[in-house]
Specification:
globular, 6 strands, 401 residues, OB fold (Dihydrolipoamide Acetyltransferase, E2P), six-stranded antiparallel sheet, alpha+beta
Length: 401
């Protein structure tokens, strides 16, 4: 069980600390425990008791609870020599008998603010895990991620979730550095285990793609072909791992998913995310022209067309302007507002980037005549991404003599 006491000011600090880039195929949730260590004045682990509700106050959880200190994870003068502290809020312990709690505190104007709490089982290894995590926090990325890898499938859900979140916030270059040193057999075991959480499959597939051998590519393909298994959740990372191990077979398999008209949206989206990965990180494995061919197929599919168009705009692939603008007259696409919006955004960005792109310029002019407010809105939206080309200065003429 997780208790969340985040105050708005603290939450803002934690969100602002999130890195701009993160590991592909593993979406982090919340802030890591070690990420909050720097924000907390002190951290305690112990048992809750003597919870007292202030019945005279209608505020939610108004009251006090005593935390009996067992382990000081991070110390502070406010708790030196103390065996317990009084938390200024009512935290009911009914139904969580013998549970232990990890509590993060700040001291504000001399008063304790318990802004985050984690309830865990009595035999939890959370204190030891967090102490170790703090020790490796300032070490090189390979050392840090190797430490968290060992806890990815820990029995304690709080520990395993935090280890996964640490990978989620790591840059791909950090993941790529450590992945070849990880045990491929362990990763394949996790992938094939039907009890492995779906949210982990993308990360495990990606890691196996760096650490495995040719035989592991065959094993991944067998998993993908197994009708009794579903890899929709995490399929993108599994496809990427398969392609890293066997570029020709893996990419052909991915493109085949896109070509198949019966492929469901989640699978198409996974293929799109796989294509993004190779464009942005590994064009040495799947070339940019290969990715563009797959993106063309995705654009042709009205179910997902807006997303690859958005990607191509961000990648500044203006050479595909005629192709993309052509879909504005395609009935399967022009009846969908979100697709038409993405086409117009592409045209605006293309017209700004290349003053000779007459197709984009003409398209924007026509759109402005039809709905000037809509074009102006999208232009304002795009100014943070693309700097418009300034208009040409009028030619100077000599003054009359």
């Amino acid at each position: 069980m997780t208790l969340r006491f985040l105050a708005p000011a603290v939450a803002g600090l934690l969100l602002a600390a999130s890195p701009a880039t993160a590991c592909p195929f593993c979406t982090p949730t919340g802030t890591t425990l070690t990420g909050e260590v720097a924000q907390a004045d002190f951290i305690l682990f112990g048992t809750m008791k003597n919870a007292k509700l202030d019945k005279d106050d209608g505020a939610f959880n108004k009251g006090t609870t005593e935390l009996e200190i067992e382990v000081v994870i991070k110390s502070h003068d406010a708790v030196k020599g103390k065996k317990s502290v009084i938390i200024p809020r009512y935290i009911p312990t009914t139904g969580v008998k013998d549970s232990k709690y990890l509590i993060f505190f700040n001291v504000i104007n001399g008063k304790l603010d318990s802004y985050r709490g984690e309830a865990v089982s009595p035999d939890s290894k959370l204190p030891e895990y967090l102490k170790g995590a703090i020790e490796v926090r300032q070490k090189d990325s390979a050392t840090r991620l190797k430490y968290f890898f060992d806890f990815l499938e820990a029995d304690d859900i709080v520990v395993s979730a935090d280890a996964f979140t640490e990978f989620g916030y790591a840059d791909y270059k950090e993941v790529r550095e450590i992945a070849p040193k990880l045990p491929a057999a362990t990763l394949l075991k996790w992938l094939t285990d039907p009890n492995t959480r779906g949210s982990r499959l993308g990360l495990y597939g990606l890691l196996l793609g760096h650490s495995g051998k040719a035989a592991d590519a065959d094993a991944i393909r067998a998993l993908l072909d197994d009708k009794q298994r579903s890899y929709t959740n995490g399929l993108d990372g599994v496809l990427a791992g398969y392609t890293l191990l066997s570029p020709k077979n893996g990419w052909e398999y991915t493109v085949a998913l896109v070509k198949n008209q019966k492929t469901e949206f989640p699978v198409k989206y996974a293929a799109l995310k796989t294509a993004r990965f190779f464009w942005e990180f590994r064009s040495d494995v799947v070339t940019n022209p290969q990715v563009l061919e797959a993106m063309k197929l995705l654009i042709d599919d009205a179910d997902v067309a807006d997303m690859p168009i958005e990607d191509l705009r961000k990648w500044k692939v203006w050479t595909l302007t005629p192709l993309i603008l052509g879909y504005a007259s395609n009935e399967s696409h022009n009846t969908t507002p979100i697709i038409m919006r993405s086409i117009l955004k592409f045209a605006i960005a293309a017209s700004w980037a290349d003053a000779t792109n007459t197709a984009a310029i003409d398209y924007v002019k026509a759109a402005r005549l039809k709905d000037p407010k809509r074009v102006q809105f999208l232009e304002e939206l795009l100014k943070d991404e693309v700097k418009p080309i300034p208009p040409a200065s009028p030619e100077k003429k000599d003054p009359p003599k």
